[in-house]
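User: Second chain of the day. Same drill as before.
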Amino acid sequence: MELIPLEPTHWEQVKKIYLEGIASGDATFQTSAPSWSEWNEGHLKHSRLVVLINKEIVGWAALTAVSGRCVYAGVAEVSVYVGETFRGKGIGKELLEELVKTSERNGLWTLQAGIFPENTGSLRIHEACGFQRIGVRRKIGQLNGTWRDTVLLERRSTVVGI
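Assistant: Same format as last time:
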């Protein structure tokens, strides 16, 4: 297993994994994958990772700014996705651990995640990486006409902004 920075040339494989997450119904409110340019614009330029196994991308992680206001410059939301056939093998945890390290190297002091309560694997991984449950956002949004809750988790750096 090799962790490397996510590059534009990885997009088609990253998009395939993202679409698998969308199809699961428990990974995101998104119902379609964006174009590379839309995805690129929406994510921070640093802390973009992919996991390779036998030269195949099997997972990815990235960060999104939570606000454009300068006071929140050190706060980002995490995205971690693992391909269907590679879930449950520790890849998500490896990605999230590295994402935490790269975020801190880039001056971020708080990471947050909004996870569907049904996505128990993702909740476990985040908690294993130091994220704490802050609360539940009840009926925060609709997915395919059904109101869904999300569990809000947060990880405060012990290195940056202390």
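The mean pLDDT is 96.

User: Great, on to the next one.
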